[in-house]
Amino acid sequence: MLTVSGARVAFGRVAALDGVDLEAATGEVVAILGPSGCGKSTLLRAVAGLQPLDGGEVRWDGEDLAGLPVHRRDFGLMFQEHALFSHRDVAANVAFGLRMQKIDASARRRRVAEVLALVGLAGFEPRQIATLSGGEAQRVALARSLAPEPRLLMLDEPLGSLDRPRRDELTEELRTLLRRLGVTVLHVTHDHDEAFAVADRVAVMQSGRIARIGSPADIWHDPRSEAVARFLGHANVVTVGNDGAVPWGRLSAPTGSAVLRADAFTRLDELPSSTGDAVTGNVADVRFRGDHYELILRTVPGNFALLARDPGAATVGETLSYSIDTTKLAPLEG
Fold first, then answer.
1. What is the SS3 assignment for 117?
2. Residue 110: which residues within 8 A CB-CB, separation 6 or more?
3. Residue 122: how many other CB atoms lie within 10 Å
4. How many degrees, rounded to 5, is the angle at CA 103 between CA 128 and CA 133?
5. Contact of 34 with 213, CB cutoff 8 Å
6. Is the model more confident about 273 or about 247?
7. Is residue 221's pLDDT more than 70?
8. Which of 97, 167, 281, 322 lies most in the core, judged by the most C-beta atoms within 10 Å?
9. Is the confidence at residue 142, as pLDDT, over 90?
10. What is the mean pLDDT of residues 167-195?
11. Using an 8 Å Cβ cutoff, are 326 and 253 in contact?
């Protein structure tokens, strides 16, 4: 098990890590999710031993790793930029870590063939790096990280350089591969769709701290803070007043700030009979999303902007009414 306790890293007056606590169990995939500059890559580098801690500890199975050099931690690290050796073929790239371990040539060849087959590149040993597609290069980099059989695999934006269709395809492949391997993984990304698809648990970082951690479903349904909610794409943050008062009417909800998910809306054929758990609004914008539409409603009354997910089409300026499922409303802290 990986255990990070009170990890602190500062660059001048800027706290890149500000008391981070994190655990990853054997075989667990944990995604570190957050915007640029939140500290997620610094955390990965600190675990790897590439970034000294100013405070706190990194432990593996209870052993403090302070002072243990990178090459003795038995951790695999894969960066977004691949860092492949362009002057060497695929086999030589994948075998790099094995040579550092002084594995003999025949065993290296067997292991290279094994991991290339594992990532779907059987027979690619003689290929030159310049001839690979972006996705193939990504897999070679992953195979190189896996070849020494690391006890922890760390992926830093592994799909960040790919276009969206290829990224979506490789996300599913990566999920299947990591489940098959059963290795402990820290997966850094800024893309919540990627994190949700790959990880068992997701740690959302904000300003050097872990603001929320849990299963993908947990943090999506209950983000707990406005910053996490908005980062995940929840647009409807509302303040519920006394007796459930909101700008357009009332909701069956406790007093305080809350996030209302875009899938909470069901279109009505006629104006609601009461202002409770319903809303009427003018369509200000329509966005086609493939299997649904996203509508921006300006509420009547209140002129409050709401994002509603609707399977049906609409036109700008149209007046629509919706019932609201308040089980899809989550309170926010602070």
1. helix
2. none
3. 11
4. 20
5. no
6. 247
7. yes
8. 281
9. no
10. 84
11. yes
Q: What is the DSSP letter of 264?
A: G
Question: Could you give the angle at which helices 105-118 and 134-146 cross, rounded to 10 degrees?
Answer: 130
141 and 76 Cβ atoms separated by less than 8 Å: no
For residue 60, report the phi and psi dihedrals to the nearest 5 degrees. Answer: -125, 120
- Which of the given ranges, 115-129, 159-173, 310-324, has the highest pLDDT on average? 310-324
Query: Which two tokens mark 309?
Result: 């997910």
In the three-class reduction of DSSP (H, G, I as helix; E, B as strand; rest coil), residue 75 is classed as strand
φ and ψ of 259, to 5 deg: -110, 130
Residue-wise pLDDT tens digits, 31-53: 999 999 999 999 999 999 999 99
- Relative to beta strand 2-11, strand 55-60 is antiparallel
Q: Which two tokens stand for residue 248?
A: 């357009």
Q: Which domains does the chain have, with CATH numbers?
A: 1-74+152-233 (3.40.50.300), 85-150 (no CATH), 235-331 (2.40.50.140)
Residue 273 amino acid letter: S
H helices within the chain, ranges in order?
Answer: 40-48, 90-94, 96-100, 105-118, 134-146, 164-181, 192-198, 216-221, 226-231
- State how far the Cα of 98 lies from the Cα of 238, in Å rounded to an integer: 55
Contact 4, 43 (CB under 8 A): yes
Separation CA 55–CA 126 (nearest Å): 46
Residues 6+ apart with CB under 8 A from 94: 112, 115, 116, 140, 143, 144, 147
How do strand 29-33 and strand 201-206 relate by DSSP bridges? parallel
Both tokens assigned to 24:
């990853």
Give the other-Cβ count within 10 Å of 25's Cβ: 12
Only one residue has tokens 């794409």, namely 233
Q: Tell me the backbone φ, ψ of residue 319, rounded to 5 degrees.
A: -100, 125
Cis bond leading into 148, ω under 30°?
Answer: no
Which tokens belong to 281? Answer: 């609004």
